[in-house]
Amino acid sequence: MNLDCLVPCDAAEADGSPTNFIVRIEFVRDIKIDELIHTNGQFYGVTFSWGQASTVQLEGTFNLTNWTRIARFFGDPPRTTWTTNVSLNSYGQFFRLSLVANQHLTNAVAASRVASSMPELRDVPISTKEFIQNRIRIGFASSPDAVYEVEICDWSGKIIATRQVVATGVFTTVTFECGETTGSGFFKVRQMIKS
After folding, report:
1. Contacting residues for 90 by C-beta, under 8 A, at least 6 apart
2. Backbone torsions φ then ψ of 180, nearest 5 degrees
3. What's the mean per-residue pLDDT of the chain?
4. Average pLDDT over residues 34-61
5. More confident residue, 88 or 103
6. CATH architecture type of domain 119-195
7. According to the 3-state scheme, what is the secondary structure of the chain?
8. Which end of the chain offers a freer environment for a tag, N or C, measured as fewer CB atoms within 10 Å?
């Protein structure tokens, strides 16, 4: 790809044109939010454009610094509309979409489930981590019948894989294939709390 640029010339050839030239090239496209869906001053969803089947994450903020995850859902090209029957104004005045994957991840939180319950997430400490052959097993204290979300993240915090598990007892283990972890990063466990 060739970029436009200024070419230096001799003083005698100067034509008085500006000395600065700004070009914006988008090497990696962003998801385009086409519309925020409002009713009576309340935010209820988003319409966005993206060229492939995708899994995206909607986040909200009041200060453009601290972002809260609202929901993950699937998108299909060329445009997708996602709505909920619960006002999302409590998550902020500003919203963004992040691309989780250029495919539908079946272990991502389904839109209808999130839309109806709008759970909060509470961090849970991991108490054990073991390597068994080509697998990593992590364990954490749990409450029976509670829903937990376990994430593998790379060191930058980008989510590599997500699993949901319903605890059957006071201690829960989740096993990942080593290929899912890409060899480095960390795990996060969160309990999904219905508000």
Report:
1. none
2. -75, -25
3. 77
4. 89
5. 88
6. Sandwich (2.60)
7. CCCCCCCCCCHHHCCCCCCCCCCCCCCCCCCEEEEEEEECCEEEEEEEECCCCEEEEEEEECCCCCCEEEEEEEECCCEEEEECCCCCHHHCCEEEEEEEECCCCCCCCCHHHHHHHCCEEEEECCCEEEEECCEEEEEEECCCCCEEEEEEECCCCCEEEEEEEECCCCEEEEEEEHHHHCCCCEEEEEEEECC
8. N
User: pLDDT per residue over 98-153, tens digit each?
Assistant: 888 777 765 544 433 344 444 456 666 776 677 777 778 888 888 888 888 888 77
By CB neighbour count within 10 A (0-12 exposed, 13-18 middle, 19+ buried), where does 59 fall?
middle
pLDDT at residue 155 tops 70: no
pLDDT at 2: 62
Residue type, 186: F
Sign of dihedral through CA atoms 85, 90, 96, 99?
A: negative
